[in-house]
Amino acid sequence: MDIMDRFERFGPVCGFRRKGKLTVFVYGLERGTRLLEQHESDLRVVTMKLEHLFEHGFMRAMVGSTHRNHRADLSRAVVRARNEQKSELTAITVIDWLSRYQHKHFEGEPSVAFRKCLSGLATGLLLRFFFGAIDGTDFCDQLEEAYHRLGPDGLIWYPGQDEEAAFNTITDILRGQLSPQGKLHWDEHGVLGHLTADGVSISESMLGNLIYMVEMGRFDLYSLFRWISKYAVDYPEKFENVRQDRIDPENNNRPYANCFVKETLRMDQSEKLARLALNDFVFENLLIPQGAAVQVCLWESHKSPEHFDNPFDFDPDRFLVADPEPHQYSPFGLDRHRCPLEQTVTAFAADFVGALARAFDFRAVGNGEAVRGLFHWQPPPGFALIVDSKSSKHAQ
Predict the structure, then answer these.
(1) How confident is the model at residue 298 (pLDDT cuts 50, 70, 90)?
(2) pTM of the predicted model, to two decimals?
């Protein structure tokens, strides 16, 4: 019995035991928001444990003034960096990486090479956004090599000694760049540059969070690029609207590429918010005991027929006129721990969609049903795009 069936049978808040552990599932974003607000002190965010690497650990697990202060400083710098982010530069970067892939720059069969391409692209975009690391510079090369050691094949949820050594190397590179003797070429308009310009103390905790936001973010962004690629193949008539740069005449600031990304996020990638019950408490007449796992089900809530017509159909048109309300659609979280990079990630993904549509023709190999990965559902392991640059065709 899947979770949707359980909601239909037992109601929107229900639990069952898996491997001897009780898990409580919550359906509906409005209901999930109430749970998180009313029982904030009874729930702990489930995330990576990084306290052995830096003080306070990951920001999403912080509480009280520690969380507020870190988030406020980071959010200001993220907004400033995003406002100075150039969509044209992102598109050029996307085209460059996909062209390298087309010309066999990456070893392995297509599925392996395509994953390497998208992983490198995601890493490069985030290294520049956060740290001002420009592709091809010594600063960027050093960070890329260290990040490869931090997570060579994806995010490592429980960092050990090898990951700690890689983390320390990244810390040393960034500290060196911030020192008066730092001479490597970089873009000072990244998040780190804006934090220092604002006079924010780059504490051990702040720097550690920036490092791991890139580490977790590059895996998530890479995964989003893969989902977008699959939907581009599976729904060519919708993707053609991106090529035509379709917009709604009454809302002409909403390019179809953005709609394509938002519908991808609604359909996949965003799955759940995980919490651990610290105390016994009652929510909607259900006793949730201490130690229970609690999941606000984003994927299922985004398929609500109350909020979306034909909710299991991929249809970016639903975002042309306006975004749904937060209680209907919230792929980046619900409460005060909502991801501060929502607009940045959406913009990167929209630029990826636009560059793919305008610069390349493509076909898929290894396409098929989604599979369960380590952290998310994802396209099948053998999936890849075979791309062909439109400019190379014209040259022929």
Answers:
(1) very high
(2) 0.94
